[in-house]
From TrEMBL:
Pfam families: HTH_31 (PF13560). Keywords: DNA-binding. Residues 8-62 form the HTH cro/C1-type domain. It comes from the Bacteria. This is HTH cro/C1-type domain-containing protein. It comes from Mucilaginibacter panaciglaebae. The keyword DNA-binding applies.
Amino acid sequence: MKSLGKKIRLLRHQKGWSQEDVAKRLDISIPAFSKIETGITDINLSRLEQISNLFEMSVVQLLTFNDHEQEQKFVNELDLVNKKLTDRETEIIELQKKVIELFEELRHNKATA
């Protein structure tokens, strides 16, 4: 059960939730939820369904959730976001060049007028 608790903790962190947040959503005490995460308390099927619903996954997905697969998914998403950011930075640099060219053209036209 300790690995299930670790999975639940990882999911909680990914959502940015505190133990208190999850305990409130599950309508249990913070120490009770902490014991679930640390594997001290075994989870019954009802609680398992409640937790899986909270993280918007099936019980099977929660039980078979693989940390490495999740990490790879986030790495791929991060790579995609970084590429988009790089593309936007390139776009901004090109726009800045155009603004400078237009400014220089206006300044040149003003000087010759």
